[in-house]
Structure formats: C-alpha cells, structure tokens
Amino acid sequence: MARYCLALDLVDDPQLIAEYEKYHESIWPEIHDSIVNGGITNMEIYRCFNRLFMIMETNASFSFDKKGAMDAANPKVQEWENLMWKYQQALPGAKPGEKWVLMNKIFNL
C-alpha cells in the first residue's frame, strides 16, 4: 500500500464551496468505479477554508500515469472533472491546467 497526499484550492465563495461539498456527499457511481478501478483503495478529502487536502491509499497496481490515461478515456470522468473545475482553482505555483498537487511528506513520527 502507498499513501499520497494532494492539495487543491476551491474558489473562495461560500455558495460554491457548499455546492462542491454537496456533490461529494454522493459522488456519481461512475466516479466511484473509476477511483476503485484505478487502484485507489481509500480516499479522503478534508477542507480548511477554501483549501482541500486529499489522502489516497493505493494498491500495488496504482500509478498516476495509468489513472490519468484511464480518466482521459472515460467520458463520464471528463464530465465530472469539467463540472468540478467550476469550483476549483489551481494552487499558487501549480503548472498550467494542474488541479491536485502532490504534497511532499516532511515529517513522520
């Protein structure tokens, strides 16, 4: 098992943040299937103000390249991603078009 932590900002608008959270109360079944079929065994998203933190646990078959290719070929995932981009904004310093940014672990107890 591997664990990855990623960050992303939401548009700093209380109404949009509430809508975003509502979508995540019950994600589309196709999105759930895409996550699981991509090798992600657990995923949690936390919010602090308009900043999101995602923790993913993955199995041995997971890779970001493989998951990206699967998502690019899945019209329903692309529909979801386009819809979510209404609520999201890139982190300062993110590459153009980059959403979730992989975080570096700097401490472990």
Textual characterization of the structure:
The chain has 109 residues and is of the alpha+beta class. The protein has a single domain, classed as 2-Layer Sandwich (Alpha-Beta Plaits), CATH 3.30.70. It is built from 4 helices and 5 strands. Strands 1, 2, 3, 4 and 5 form a 5-stranded antiparallel β-sheet that branches. The longest helix has 12 residues. It is globular. The two termini are 18 Å apart.
Shape label: globular
The CATH topology label is: Alpha-Beta Plaits
Give Rg in angstroms: 14 Å
CATH architecture: 2-Layer Sandwich
pLDDT below 50 for ≥5 consecutive residues: which ranges? none
User: In total, how many beta strands?
Assistant: 5
Count of the separate structural domains: 1
Mean pLDDT across every amino acid position: 97
Classified by CATH, the class is: Alpha Beta
From the helix content, strand content and strand pairing, which structural class follows?
Answer: alpha+beta
What does the largest sheet look like? 5 strands, antiparallel
Number of helices: 4
Distance between the termini: 18 Å
Percent of residues in β-strands: 25-35%
Q: How much helix, percentage-wise, in residues?
A: 25-40%
Write the H/E string, N to C: EHHEEHHEE
